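subagent[fold] <- orchestrator: predict structure for attached chain, return tokens only, no commentary.
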Amino acid sequence: MAHRYHHLPSLTVFTALEVFEAAARHLSLEIAASELNVTSGEISRQIKVIEDDLDVPLFVRTGTGVVLTSAGKNLYTELASICSKTSDVVTTIKRGGRCRVSRLPPPMRSPGSG
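subagent[fold] -> orchestrator:
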């Protein structure tokens, strides 16, 4: 069966995206670490997982902190948008509201099935 989202990262990298988002939002590994209740070393390790998977740096480390590379800016912009939309949907659901319904494509069938 073909995997529809084959370009998404592994779950390990997917989990590390939360770490990246916090570090990018704050432009600080230390503040991200404090927010997520982990060490700044763990933040660095998680970001390295993503950078290794993408084979591109996401931050440039400076003497006083970090700045996003163009790839990092692109990734952060998309993550921030996804997180914002997801938060809006969750809030709507919790308040008992209805979300806009979109028609999803039917599941892909493997050759020979059906």
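orchestrator: received. Logging for downstream: The chain has one domain: 11-90. Residues 11-90 form a domain with the Arc Repressor Mutant, subunit A fold (CATH 1.10.10.10).
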